Amino acid sequence: MSGPTLFFSTLMADETKTIARGLQRRDPDLLDRLIEQYQYRLFRYLVYITGNKARAEDFFQETWIRVLERGHQYNGKSKFEAWLFAIARNLVIDWQRSKKAQSLDTLTDPEQEHPLQFADENDPSPLRQVLSQETEENVQASLQKIPAIYREVLVLRFQEELQIDEMAGVLSIPLSTVKSRLYRGLEALRGALQGGAAS
Amino acid sequence: MNENTHQRALQLIAQARVEGMPETDRTWLRAHLEDCDFCAEHARQTDRALRLLRTAAIPVPAGLAGRTQFRVLWLACGMSWIFGVASAPYVWSLFQWLGQRTGVPKLVWEVGFGLWWSIPALFAVAVLLMESSRKGEQADWINQGS
């Protein structure tokens, strides 16, 4: 391992251990700092997996309450954001299960006969409402076309820049499944954008 | 070039972006893309798609972090209060035992027990008051500046 790489990995390990110790003490200053620091990334992830801004706001708050309650379970061996996203994802799945008695995967698996989406059908275009106006319009439309399980892996890999093994931890699925979803998601994104550009 | 060559190139284009690829494959792909317009266009479209995904911005609602911090703080206080109430009989017994061991008058260890609860609460109130006064001064300063 090269000098700078070793330096940054040591720095990161120290940071995760500090977070783990703070969460075990339920340190309010640390929680304040983490909420500030991860607000954008967590909210973006929740918007992408729920497809609904208001719901993402609710889950955002619930996620941090869960972090407060279960902070002692974070051991500092993995990235904090991977643990945070796993908590957020589990909350969304629990909510979906209580609502529909189905998991995230079955709700959004495009291979199912009637794949369901997180967004309400009555809601005209939730992602469109929250994506910035500065973003190219066809990106918004294209993301809508991609099934949630693919959208989720694309966000974790290319926006959050998680490693594939970290994603497997967040999603609780094998590495091979993460990879296959990434390949399919990438193809779906490219195809959707190409279609959007053509239309 | 046959169909298999293009298939391999398309597979490597995705692999490079998803999980990386060995140097030998990278060299082969580079050479192929120089000769094949179709695969080169595919690579460009893939990169464009990823670039657009990375730059797609979702604004965070104003005050979301503040509202969450407030909720989390109150919950933390609530949890702390529940813990305090649940542990009160044990703390009382501890003070009583210490009072008997050291022979101090009953009133002294009872006052000690009272201070054990009131000092952290008074300290927390003082911190909250100082914090709100600091925020008030900051707001005045910002208003004056604007």
Shape of chain B: elongated
* Biggest pleated-sheet summary of chain A: none
- Cα(first) to Cα(last) distance of chain B is 67 Å
Quaternary state of the chains: heterodimer
The number of strands of chain A is 0
Radius of gyration of chain B: 33 Å
Number of helices of chain B: 5
Q: Which blocks of ≥5 consecutive residues of chain B have pLDDT under 50?
A: none
Number of domains of chain A: 1
Note the main sheet of chain B. Answer: none
Query: Low-confidence runs of chain A (pLDDT<50, min 5 residues)?
Result: 110-124
* Number of self-contained structural domains of chain B: 2
Q: Helical region count of chain A?
A: 10
Order of helices and strands of chain A: HHHHHHHHHH
- What percent of residues of chain A are in strands? under 5%
Strands of chain B, total number: 0
Structural class of the secondary structure composition of chain A? mainly alpha
Principal-axis shape of chain A equals globular
Termini separation of chain A comes to: 48 Å
String of helices and strands of chain B: HHHHH
Rg for CA atoms of chain A: 18 Å
